[in-house]
Amino acid sequence: MTTLDEERIAALLRSAQVPEPRVDVGRAVRDGRRRRQRRRVGGVAAVTVLAGLGVVGVVELDGLASPKAPARPAVAASPTAVASAAAAQPVTCEASWLPQPIGGSVAVANGVDPTGRYIVGDIGTGNEDGRVVLWTDGRAGVLPAGARHAAAVNARGDVVGTDGGGTGWVYRNGKLRFLATPPGYQAVLVYAVNGRGDIAGTASGAGESRQAVLWSADRPQEYRLIGRPGSAATAITEDGTVVGSMDRLPYRWTPEGTGAALAVPDGYPHASVDSAHGGWAIGMVPGERKGGAVQMLPVRWNLSTGAVILLPFPGASGIAGTGDLLVDDGAPLVVAPDGTSRRLPGRPEVRATEAGTYTASGISDDALTVVGAVYENEAYRPLVWRCRR
What residues form the membrane-spanning segments (predicted)? Predict the structure, then answer.
């Protein structure tokens, strides 16, 4: 990347209008987005889970008028053409394979804990037969068959997810336990777990009834409802801040339970929150409708200030505790809050991204560990990128 390219990306990140936090926003897009990496490489399994829970993806907004969105900031240099910014950000990265303890043509790493030690993923054929795999310091272990569709792993190695029937689960200290479904609701969808073992998710019931829920990894049969009916939780930070939605507005709750709406970029009537780490969160706003589907555009929140910015990239698949964005476009890119960036290298035996299509779905809090997969020869193979300063 040239100095000029760096300056352009930085200028784009700074130029988006950042309104003060407000609550008078329009109807939010439908909640319930599953993690993006499943849509990319594990679509069959994810669609089955979502259909069973009655969840509608935000790219399928039948009956919801697409807003006339303002022009999206143009990307000065296409992300696929951007090279590593070693001069501006002295970070070097190297890709290595993750071992596959079982066979399967769809083997992906889709989550990493904040320290970069634990990595979670799935291996199967893509036909509802996937098994959850936990890599600890590079060593692979297969979770019990009852653990399906892992969502996240924390710094203690606790893994959480939701099985195909809408039951939440936690795998801790070698034991698989199931989470309580609150009375009055039919299923839950688990999204995240922090280092304290707080598990965040959403309970769903008849019609479109739902409510944000917190469980404990130590006491999975106990739970606490967050907000009011109509709320949803999609992420939780290490300090216990929960993000999600309330009455179709993007929302956050402090560890003490105090809630407030998050801002939405000017000109966009609603937004969804996807994940959060440290003082940052990412999500999506609906753009133009194309071919019957709404084009979703990525946004980033600074949870400390409440500021929101529309991002000049095709998508953001992760956010580090440092605020670094993981941009997943077939050749992943890590972009710092100041706009400097680095392109992740290709598979171990290739000097650059010359072969295969890459997906990157998880990033550690220090932005130095990234996990994902490469697709080539009609199969996915899991990768980890380790970086150092």
Answer: 41-59
* DSSP for 177-234, written as a single string: EEPPPPTT-SEEEEEEE-TT-EEEEEEE-STT-EEEEEEESS-TT-EEEESSTTEEEE
Render 253-301 in DSSP notation, one character per residue: E-TT--EEEPP--TT-S--EEEEEETTEEEEEEEEEEETTEEEEEEEEE
CATH, range 3-388: 2.130.10.10
Residue 62 CB partners (closer than 8 Å, separation 6+): none
pLDDT at 34: 36
Name the amino acid, one letter, at 101: P
CA-to-CA separations, 10 to 72, 76, 340, in angstroms, rounded: 16, 10, 7
Model confidence, pTM: 0.79
> Which residues of the chain carry a pLDDT beneath 50?
1-87, 351-353
64 to 57, 207, 255: CA distances (angstroms)? 12, 17, 33
- The predicted structure's pLDDT at residue 348: 73
Bridge-based pairing of strands 92-97 and 369-376 is unpaired
The angle at the Cα of 184, spanning 180 to 186, to the nearest 5 degrees, equals 65
